[in-house]
Amino acid sequence: MLPANILGAMLVGLMSSPVEGGSDVLRLVEGKLAPPLFDSFVGAMLCGAVIFLIVHSYRRNSDPLGRWLGVMLGVPVFVISRFENSIPNVFYLSAAYKQFGFFDARCLPFMLLVLLGNGAGALLLHAIMPPQEAA
Q: Looking at the domain assignment, is residue 107 inside a domain?
């Protein structure tokens, strides 16, 4: 599933058309590449943990209202936190490349660490949950 998500985000980014204010994507990408890689990795781990909690809440809650609340409370936390998520980042990097020809050598290590951080955050949270609670 991950390779398909990456490919889909990349293709959509490469097919995107510049829009008014399109330089925002370039500023966004430059801003994502600016912090130290360790900071991006930690942000990616936290993102993976939040996404894990959202999915875990949905899977473990049999009550429709409980499922809805888990997602509806978790998604804003994910969005507002601005943690690093690999799939939107693939889109942003691809759109910046398509629209501005932007590619920086920092893109590859950044994406690798964000991918690893997303997975590590989810796996770490899963590992520390009590066995009866783990998905």
A: yes
